[in-house]
Amino acid sequence: MRLSMFNEFSPLKLLAIAETRFASVVIMLRRFVLVKNALQSMVISPQWDIYKADSEAASVVKEKILSDVWWSKVEYILKITEPVHEMIRVTDTDNPCVHLVYEMWDSMIEKVRKAIYEREERNLNDHEGSPLFKQVHKVLIARWTKGNNPLHCMAHSLNPRYYSAKWLAAGEGRVPQHKDLEMG
Hints:
By secondary structure, the chain is an all-alpha fold.
């Protein structure tokens, strides 16, 4: 009944995603953001109050849907998880991408850090750091350590992109991979 009610307020449908699909929660939260206005219209409509099945759950849903704090948390979760989801999506392919993993991993961690620091209104150069980021970083590094493979390092080192004059000139301190002490 509530699904048919929702369909009256939104041209987009709610998704039914298999839990076995990676990032199903992220995909569902993205859809929630897309249908936010329809959800809010639905819970303030007279139809919502008329439908009395499980009214306790309905009032909790209504409270969340109308809460700016809840939507802010949803947006925050998406900002933190988007870089991770993007990396998984890019590497979930039949195309060769092992040479991209090192740089993508490093960029992903930096994007997550930036999202957390922005939310906490911290300076990116804050050396004290964010307690949340420290925990997230620990999880990401543990995952990297578990899946890290010498093949990733070799593929990254042999990527011709990192030897081009254009790439080397684009940033201060850039050196060819075979001269990079971090790669050692």
